[in-house]
Amino acid sequence: RRVSVVVRADGQINPSIRKSEEKVADFVKASELPKPKAVFCRCWRAEKFPYCDGAHLKHNKETGDNVGPLVIDTAAA
Ligand code: FES
């Protein structure tokens, strides 16, 4: 299976999220994670970043990439 990956000429992964910040870092208290799961974006395209909103599906379809979220099972936490 052939997978193509789009690499920006400037080497940046983040196309538009909070670009005025020196570094995009988010802190979430474990006790405040939603149940039964917390789903975090790893494609840097979610409107509600750092949470996944499904934007990776469009990105993958357009680019042939295969990115997806980090899903934390919080049901038993
Ligand atoms: Fe980015 Fe789902 S929207 S991983």
Question: Can you walk through the features of this model?
Answer:
- With 77 residues, this protein is mostly loops.
- The protein has a domain at 31-73: Ribosomal Protein L9, domain 1 (3-Layer(aba) Sandwich), CATH 3.40.5.
- Helix content is 12%, strand content 10%.
- It contains 1 helix and 2 strands, in the order βαβ.
- The chain has one helix at residues 55-63, and strands at residues 37-40, 70-73.
- It has a two-stranded antiparallel sheet with strand order 1-2.
- It is flat.
- The model has no long low-confidence stretch (mean pLDDT 91).
- The structure holds FE2/S2 (inorganic) cluster.
- Residues 41-43, 45-46, 52-56, 67-69 line the site of FE2/S2 (inorganic) cluster (FES).
Question: How are the secondary structure elements laid out?
Answer:
Blueprint: E1 37-40, H1 55-63, E2 70-73
Antiparallel strand pairs: 1-2
FE2/S2 (inorganic) cluster binds next to helix 1.
